[in-house]
């Protein structure tokens, strides 16, 4: 059994924002799922079913971004799923818009949702699929305002394609394994940028980045 986690913030206010691409990819995967049924968790919304013939749990943490690890630990403990069988899908401002990067493990890279998951799982040895949402055009713009904002009409088509690509990568991982999925779906040309600063303002602390 695999646990597939999409990161985001709950509530209509945050629907389809840059920070919620993980939730949106899970919606794509849900449409592909066979025999889906809801699972009850205190800290997350989950669906159990089959993808590519394998039993999976699709989980959206409802704890807000910075506490995502609480929901992931709850589901992983309930189903006795090892870290290596967890895949987390999230946004990344350090990756160019609509680029996809798949890694077997790694650091949080400034993403507070991943940081929370690493803390609550006690390790970073879980797969992560990051979707580039692009950094601010103006570095003076508040980072939280950027990630909690919506994509422009010009960017929307590209990000929709990237989210479909991320969903395809999950299915490929299930059928052919992670190395093949990485080789097939990782965006080849990647741009390195400065490490993203973390948001510490109290009023935005639960949601971003």
What key phrases describe this protein's structure?
single chain, 209 residues, alpha/beta, Rossmann fold, seven-stranded mixed β-sheet, 34% helix, 22% strand
Order of helices and strands: EHEEEHEEHEHHH
What percentage of residues falls in helices of 4 or more residues? 25-40%
CATH topology name, in short, is Rossmann fold
Number of DSSP strand runs: 7
- Mean pLDDT reading: 92
- Overall 3D geometry? globular
Spatial ordering of strands, largest sheet: 2-3-4-1-5-7-6
| Beta fraction | 15-25%
Q: Which blocks of ≥5 consecutive residues have pLDDT under 50?
A: 190-203
First-to-last CA distance = 29 Å
* CATH architecture descriptor: 3-Layer(aba) Sandwich
How would you name the CATH homologous superfamily? Peptidyl-tRNA hydrolase
Number of helices: 6
Q: Kindly provide the radius of gyration, computed on alpha-carbon positions and rounded to a whole number of angstroms.
A: 16 Å
Largest beta-sheet characterization: 7 strands, mixed
CATH class: Alpha Beta
When the domains are counted, the total is 1
Sheet/helix structural class:
alpha/beta
Summarize it.
By secondary structure, the chain is of the alpha/beta class.
